[in-house]
Description:
The chain is an alpha+beta fold. The protein has a single domain (8-304), classed as 2,3-Dihydroxybiphenyl 1,2-Dioxygenase, domain 1, CATH 3.10.180.10. It has helices spanning 18-28, 91-100, 165-173, 227-239, 298-304, and strands at residues 8-15, 32-38, 46-51, 60-65, 78-86, 107-111, 114-120, 126-131, 153-161, 176-182, 185-190, 198-203, 217-224, 248-249, 253-259, 265-273. The strands form 2 sheets. Strands 2-3-4-1-13-16-15-14 form an 8-stranded mixed sheet. An 8-stranded mixed sheet has the order 6-7-8-5-9-12-11-10, with helices on one face. Strand 14 and strand 15 (253-259) form a beta hairpin. The chain is globular. 45% of the residues are buried.
Amino acid sequence: MLQEIKGLHHVTSMAxxxxxxxxxFTGTLGLRRVKxxxxxxxxxxxxxxxxxxxxxxxSVMTYFPFPNMGPARHGxxxxxxxxxxxxxDALGYWRDRLAAAGIAPVTESTSFxxxxxxxEGPDGDRFALLEVEGDARVAWTGGGVPADVAIRGFHSVSLxxxxxxxxxxxxxxxxxxxxETAGSVTRMAVRGGGVADVVDIETLPxxxxxxxxxxxxxxVAFAVEDRAAQLAVRKAIADTGYQVTPVIDRDYxxxxxxxxxxxxxxxxxxxxxxxxxxxxxxxxxxALKLPSRYEHARxxxxxxxxxxxx
Length: 310
């Protein structure tokens, strides 16, 4: 069992328009853009990171906005919904805020006895706000959302799978345990508890296969403290038969990737070195930061990228 895994690190998705994506996360949801950089494999495309004040692991939503990308086809084999934690009694504020931003429909429901709002992002991305008692994480308020209702970070992700058995077994090996089951959804959380540590498995036997596009989650990343812990996790997962990538330097964390039995791409990312490694905390996300191998092409890249402000 991999006791090194502490919960969620980040969630990375696809979008079709960088400006609309930035406006939704920094404006509508009130998160901070903590890093503005580019896709390591496609430097003409942004990689945008949104989260709390410092981009703490467990708070960071990231996007690859490919201009004019076609829409996703949702189905089995994907992360279905990314769920953010908000304080108790915050949903009334958020219902009004989302309505004022033209977000519709917004659906109120109960998930494992907790109140939640479900809604979609600009590309049909699926999100929820869940009232969580006692989440002591400090919210970012620079986006105009009051501290007593602001997003704290992730609560969970849901995996939509035709058969959840093998993925439940994998998550069990990754230090998750089953908490409870309601209908077709099984809730798992990191042993010992914490924040941003829940994964829901939704079993949909007859669902069509998901197809990657704007509004899709590309991968979900799990957190480990440092590179030594990551190497231990890599060896253990590879020893069970999974094809795991070598360690890749992503500038703000080191990453490994592997494909799960249900088709979802998992990443294991380090909490080090973080988003302040190349920017002052007061100015995170303001300047375009390029991987060193693209610095020579800065002028061309900057000319190609869409300005994030209207």
